[in-house]
Amino acid sequence: AERIPTLRGYMALVVSLAIELIARDKSHGKVTLLIDELQNISRMSTLLKGLALYRGAGIRVVMLVQFLSALQRLYGESYREFLGADCVTLFGASSDPTTLEIFSKLSGEAAFVQRSVSSDPSRLTVDQAGFTASVNQGRRPLISVGELRTLGDKEQISLISNLPPLKSHRQSYLENPTLRSRASHNPYYRRPGIVSRIRRLFR
Fold this sequence. Notes:
The chain has helices at about 5-25, 45-55, 70-75, 80-85, 95-105, 145-150, 175-180, 195-200; strands at about 30-35, 60-65, 90, 110-120, 130-140, 155-160, 165-170. By secondary structure, it is α+β, with helices and mostly antiparallel strands.
C-alpha cells in the first residue's frame, strides 16, 4: 500500500493497455482483471471506456473499493458508471454514510401492504361491530441502511444482475485448507533474478 502513490501512474497505464489489448484480441478468450484499492489509483478513463464498449469482448473487471465517496472524489459524477455496469457488486461491513445509502438504493425496492384494525366502542351498535379496517400500500428498500450497518465482519451482500440481493458469509482462502491447497505461487516470480530486476526499475 505504501508504494501506491509512487506506482499508481504506472498501474493505470498497465490496466489501460491491458483492456485495449484484450478487446482487440480475436481469440475470444476470457480475462478477469482484479483491481484492488481502485480509489487510490490514478483516474483511468480507459477503464470506464472498457466497461461501456467492451462488455462482450471477454473482459471481466472485479473492482475492490473501500469507500464510494473516495471513488467519487477521483472520478467525479462519472463514478456512477461503475455502479451502472453489468457486474457483480459485493458489499461488506461499512460505516461510510455515502456507501450505505447508495448500496441500499442499488438493492432495489419492494412493495408492501400494511393492514390495521382499530376498535371504537362508541360506534358499537346492533348492526356494527365497532371495528374499522384500513389498508395502506407503500414501497421500501429491500435492504435498509440500518441492516447494512449491522453486517458482521464476515458477512456480505451480493448484487447480481436480474436476481434479488443475496446475503452470504465469506471466508479467506488462507483460512480454508481446501482452498489454500489450490493456490500456487506465481511462476513469474520464480524466474532467476526477476526480483532484483524489478527493484532496479523503480530506484
